[in-house]
Predict the 3D structure of the following.
Amino acid sequence: MDYDHHFHSTYYQHFLFFKNKKPPLMYIIPFAFTLISIVLLIASFTIGGFSGMGMTVSSIGLLISSAAALIVVSFFGFLGSE
């Protein structure tokens, strides 16, 4: 086994979950979490008080992480298409 093949296979081994799936599935999962976090953010304003503030912090954390995951998945999808 040459070095290039070994590097290529170990570099993408973390993304094998999405490798055999249909391409839209890898975009749907982070997008669904993004929508859930937006709904939680809107709901946190209606709850108010300290419970609403805690829910706001959780939903913003979920929003940031799901948006970052969507960007990373899109980037690797773009690299895989070339």
The two ends are 24 Å apart (CA to CA). DSSP finds four helices and no strands in the chain. Residues 3 and 9 are 10 Å apart (CA to CA).
